[in-house]
Amino acid sequence: MRYYPVHLDIKNRNCLVVGGGSVGTRKVTTLLACGAKVAVVSPQANEELQKLARAGSITLKERRFRAGDLDHMFLVIGATDDETLNRQISKDAENRNILCNIADRPAVCNFILPSIVHRGDLVITISTSGKSPALAKKLRKTLEDQFGDEYAHFLTLMGNIRKKLLRQSHKPEAHKHLFNELIDKGLLEMIRDGRKTDIDRLLSNILGKEFEYDSQTGSGKWKL
């Protein structure tokens, strides 16, 4: 199987999780973190899901899955240990052209979930096309050690600089070389090492004094 890699925008989209155990809870947590409107269907739901429901963070239906639960859904994730039910979820989703993932059952999915490394706006995804989740997990841990929080700070800084340049009527192509120069001259490493004086000097030399670090990130937001 060859998968088409894609990152989905699910903010404010209706997403369904079928299953109220630990696997379903992990799926719910990830969906919520990405801004989805999450509904859960399960005859039994653990305390964490119950809390989320009481807080109004999710809609919880404590009963068995029905095909109508898929109405108006953008995607569904099956997280049950009932193989017959998992296949029914997949079939019903396919009939409605809805994105469907069944946990640990790539054969009945039309998309699979990669292993993920998050560093702010940096998102690194690892997939073995369903062949070896254990390898994906090992690679994730390796990358988590390799990519630290400096990448999150770096991307926030670069994003704010880009917005400011665009407000000054710069065309995106016109300042590509500026970002390449910032990277080539070690801005990321300066952030990692907390070298604020060097950061300000570099930003000032390449972009101008109005682009110094504190003015782009908020003074004191990160301890450098």
Can you walk me through this structure?
The protein has 224 residues and is an alpha/beta fold. The chain folds into three domains: 14-113, NAD(P)-binding Rossmann-like Domain (Rossmann fold), CATH 3.40.50; 114-147, Double Stranded RNA Binding Domain; 150-217. It has nine helices and seven strands. The chain has helices at 22-33, 47-54, 83-95, 133-146, 150-167, 176-184, 187-193, 196-207, 213-217, and strands spanning 14-18, 37-41, 58-61, 75-78, 99-102, 115-119, 122-126. Strands 3-2-1-4-5 form a five-stranded parallel β-sheet, sandwiched between helices. The protein has a two-stranded antiparallel ribbon with strand order 6-7. Helix 2 links the parallel strand 2 (37-41) and strand 3. Helix 5 (150-167) crosses helix 7 (187-193). The longest helix is centred in the last third of the chain and has 18 residues, at 150-167. It is elongated and about 65 Å long.
